[in-house]
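Researcher: Quick one. four chains, 700 residues in total.
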Amino acid sequence: MITILAGTNRPHSRARRIAHYYQRLLTELGAASQVLDLAELPADFLISALYANVGRNDGFNRLAAVLDAADKWVIVTPEYNGSFPGALKGFIDGLPYPNAFRGKKAALVGLSSGGQGGLQAMAHLTDVLMYLGTAVLPQRVRLPFINQDLNAEDGLNNELSRQLLREQALALLAF
Amino acid sequence: MITILAGTNRPHSRARRIAHYYQRLLTELGAASQVLDLAELPADFLISALYANVGRNDGFNRLAAVLDAADKWVIVTPEYNGSFPGALKGFIDGLPYPNAFRGKKAALVGLSSGGQGGLQAMAHLTDVLMYLGTAVLPQRVRLPFINQDLNAEDGLNNELSRQLLREQALALLAF
Amino acid sequence: MITILAGTNRPHSRARRIAHYYQRLLTELGAASQVLDLAELPADFLISALYANVGRNDGFNRLAAVLDAADKWVIVTPEYNGSFPGALKGFIDGLPYPNAFRGKKAALVGLSSGGQGGLQAMAHLTDVLMYLGTAVLPQRVRLPFINQDLNAEDGLNNELSRQLLREQALALLAF
Amino acid sequence: MITILAGTNRPHSRARRIAHYYQRLLTELGAASQVLDLAELPADFLISALYANVGRNDGFNRLAAVLDAADKWVIVTPEYNGSFPGALKGFIDGLPYPNAFRGKKAALVGLSSGGQGGLQAMAHLTDVLMYLGTAVLPQRVRLPFINQDLNAEDGLNNELSRQLLREQALALLAF
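Model:
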């Protein structure tokens, strides 16, 4: 089982659409997966699930359990302000340390409407995940200009992007 | 006027105590300042002040206005999971771009209970601020082992730390 | 006086050509500048100018003096293997610490044949410069696909790139 | 076979001594290894083994072959100016891309005389290695205050450091 994380709490995000694209890709490759969309986070989780409240928010715990059910993760992260979203970092800040992370393996996908493709977002996220004991697949996929490339059927117009995601998925299965 | 930002929404945080220490330091140096504590963020700001709701949350807007009232900032950031807090990134994600950041100047202070002293937190935060057009003072101060060094009177037992903060404050005034 | 550093020891590099482009730009803006090309480094400087030999290599010292003669720098760095060149880092490793860096101000330009535009190279270089006490201008300019954009007359075909460099140069003069 | 890289060209470096410490550790764990000391690099390799000369320097090629003979690497890097040495980056810049890196696995050890322990050096090196297709073990070991901890018999006085290196070595064998 692989958990595919849409790494923003923005409703109906492109990250969520790419997460579903990735799920179809994994299905084609014969691998079971589930999508975890941070848009389902309780609105006040940054207080009600952190600090003195760690572990006490049922809605948060449900999402944490979905993540924990898989040893391999795909994290799809948009680029907000040159890094990954505060909502994703807040989610990580609320997870039990180090049990949630140690021994896990993650593949990263970065999205941006501009030309960066989430490069710096993925570099920062790698620093955080490795600090927590999660191995990160070296193949990190940048999806720049995602506004143009993601079409109405949630397919990707860009063949290079499709190929890179497929190679990454195969590498994650073998990681 | 300098705004000193306590960069976590944890209630009664050490970051807040260091922010007040910094305020006393600036007062000694003859500079006016105000403390902005992210613990005052509305509990649900990650939804109610972001995305379609940017600019619509009065509580959030009040904090944003405090930040905007100063051209120089001190950002005191704890280290959570090898980077800066999700709450601080979420606050940045909700601010108006690029007006909130362009032309501002920031000094960074990192705290940790371990030996890092928020080094990586400050490196990531620098990447974000520079991306947004804020100049970052090269003197970034690490305060490792803050649990031991911050005493009951909110003073710092560590003389080197006191000296580094003083040098940083002087550099910020001249920046 | 501004020193423009071509940040690789590759002979006849694109970084050198961009450095000369930048010099013409500064001349137009009425600012004096000089180009320092790391291709002039002594071939064996990584041994003959470092460690026990710091300060003992005349050829290296000559280049270090050119850098030191200016308080403002433009550093043009290609992207080699996802970061800035080893030759540039080696040059930095041989400079007298902290005198060469403290109080200096730097503007960064990144080049790549691919789509990154030296983003990560500039992020790493910023970490190093700030560690050494050099202030880095927040406006960092990425020049992706430089093979296509740099023409035979050492002009830039890309208007956005020309505009970003001009804005950066003006910001450096005011920094 | 594991190659342990002493990541500086400084003669008789502490990185080399830690590399030999690591070799004894691997021997205890029943794993074969070899030490590759960048002090053996030809003095002028930054010119004679790069750019138009890639692959043409026999001395450089000999070291590259030692690296290539192993699928797993331990890279021991000192911290020079807030990052890893220019000599190590230059060595990487001269290796054949991507054959030298793709599919390799690396464990990183950082050294510093100060309190950082090479944290930023290892973060930058991780960015480079992952860009090149090498998987990096999440357990990165910081050895701060190495001047005090490395004793005359090339043992480590610090028990925590010894334990972290042992755990890292076991994790690398299982990676």
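Chain A touches chain B through 34 residues (CB under 8 Å).
Researcher: Thanks, that's what I needed.
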